[in-house]
Amino acid sequence: MKISKSRYILSFLGATCVLALVRCAFPSVANDLSHDAPSPSVADSCEAQVADGKVANGVSSDSIQSVDAQCVDDYCLSDSAKLRSRFFKADGTLAKNRIFSVPGFQVSFPDQNDVQLEAAQKHGVKPVVDREDAENRKSELVFVGGNMYFYVDRLRNSIPYLVPRASVLLQDIGQAFFDSLQMKGVPLHKLIVTSVLRSKADVETLRGRNGNATQNSCHLYGTTFDVCYNRYKTVEAPGEQRRAVRNDTLKWVLSEVLRDMREKGRCYVKYEVKQGCFHITVR
């Protein structure tokens, strides 16, 4: 028993000496790691500033207004705070961010047909001849139907199909538009899709009465869709009467969403004046 105790004491002393040497060689191992985290008061202050709209959408450079850079960094470390403050302020009231629109629609969305056509040919399918040909190409295309984010208008010169890449883009635009409306305190509205995949026969018919329709249309490839900016579908429960919202207000919010998508490199956008729509091609 005495031998066992002696060995135990020697082992303990040896370990203590080793730790002491490590601490002497590397003093930082003894630092209190809790000092690296922002204090609760700083985190709360940052959350309050974000909730008040001083930092729109987290750290958007377009909306930062006199906010300390360290505060932005500290706030970004708090995912839970970001989730709580995305739609609501710290006191639980609905957060309402400002509507900025874009500097100019034709300036912000200048992507002409030649630019969009290059992306369409890269990511799209071989142009379909007619509707029968489109039905035989379902392995390459996905059906585009109305959902909670957008409404598909009555299609007269196109077919409700897109390549998967473009379908995801349309879904993301619709969801981002919904989120933006809620964050700005605007009653919810659905986007209206007015044109999707066109066959060669559709293009020839359309060219007879639409000067903007080109023979080599991006719509032939299933990568392109049109979203109108002067009509929207109001989202309301049966019997509910939502307050009226001007189409211009909704257009401004939509333009912010499309500008962000375009700047992220996800799409090309052309502002169509005569047709009253945004002409969008996936990248």
TrEMBL record:
Signal peptide coordinates: 1-30
Keyword ATP-binding: no
Keyword presence, Signal: yes
Membrane-traversing stretches: none
Taxonomic superkingdom: Bacteria
Organism: Hallella faecis
Protein name (record): DUF5715 family protein
UniProt keyword annotations, A-Z: Signal
Matches recorded under Pfam families: DUF5715
